[in-house]
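Sanity check

After download, print the first record. It should look like this:
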Amino acid sequence: MKVYFEQELREESVMAVAREMMTAARTAPKARGVDNLVIALLNREGIVAVSDTLKAMALRDKLPDFFLRDAVNILSAQAMVLIGTKIVPMGLTPCGMCGFVDCTEKNKHPHHPCAFNTGDLGIAVGSAASVAMDHRVDNRIMYTAGQAVLEMGLLGEEVRIAYGIPLSVSGKNPFMDRDKEALIKLAGQ
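Expected structure tokens:
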């Protein structure tokens, strides 16, 4: 008789939940039915690369300590879901929710977000995180990881806003660790 211990199946379980999260993000409602999302999944090797990039960014750009904290926290993840959006105005009139009079004016500022793209991203991220919660997989939505993903170009040049959602199954949620001094020491800083 073969006995399967949870530790042997943990990574497989986390990856299955991550795939369901990606599906939830894809099927989340989108403005005018237009889908500008890019969704991907990282394994442990990819997570280490994001962590290294976060550390490098924090040191190079003198970023707040929480970039280093998150660089260390994500190393406890078995997987990380990435969700980003392209910036493509929806052409709705009247609108002006982005701060410009209309999409024609907004298009003169291509890096300025469209309110609908960011709204769609938020709904997708929330849908994905709810799947992790439903399966009791520890997670945290991290804009810091998204910043590293953007710098690395992992989601393509057109993606301008991204989030990372690291996933972990362990006795304690590692993404809630907030002991700054210990984490900075762990990061080798």
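If your output differs, re-run the checksum step. Summary of this record's structure: DSSP finds seven helices and four strands in the chain.
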